[in-house]
Amino acid sequence: MRWIAACLLSLVALPVLAQTAPAPSPAAPLPRVALTTAAGTIVVEVDTVHAPISGNNFLRYIDQKRLDGAPFYRVVKVQDHFGFVQFGVNNARGKVLPPIKHEPTTLTGIKHTDFTLSTPRRAPGTAAGDFTILLGDQPSFDADPTKPGDNLGYAAFAHVVDGKDVVLKVFDAPNSPTATLGGYFKGEIPAAPVKILTARRVAN
């Protein structure tokens, strides 16, 4: 009888112990960055947990003020509010940092959805100081191991959390019909590129 009573007491004590156990510490908030432009401010949340290489690369450009004065130099308009805007140092000497290891979406789990930030590249491992904001879901930018050739896609690492209307202003501004970037991207170069005045970390 004493053994049964002891068992019953131990069972009764379990919920009490569970209630008094310390709660797990909340996860630290993801870093946020404000891109202040003449058209308004865009705030992005950088996922350094799932995309640590790409996310921290972006933050290095922010912390070293390398994006101050950088333009939105390319706007690709597939259809109404579907395409992307591109900004960054455009390989400018003294601004660009060494390229980073590629982080495919199959590794990070971050897909190329509406208002996602990603890193343009040539071959895998060439991404550096240029960045893309997508308009519309674009799964063709994701890695796809079933495809032949270079199937690693691009590295998504952040999302716009405020100022989406500013991104649309950049997207909707007219492109030059003749301007190019080193002979490429004709029809995709803004007639009056919007510049980033400052790019700084901000509190959540």
Automatic annotation (TrEMBL):
Keyword terms, alphabetized: Isomerase, Signal
Keyword Signal: yes
Record EC number: 5.2.1.8
Key word Signal present: yes
Enzyme class label: isomerase
One Pfam short name: Pro_isomerase
Organism domain of life: Bacteria
Domain PPIase cyclophilin-type, chain residue ranges per copy: 37-201
Signal sequence coordinates: 1-18
GO MF terms, alphabetically ordered: peptidyl-prolyl cis-trans isomerase activity
Protein name, UniProt field: Peptidyl-prolyl cis-trans isomerase A (Cyclophilin A)
Native source organism of the sequence: Sphingomonas leidyi
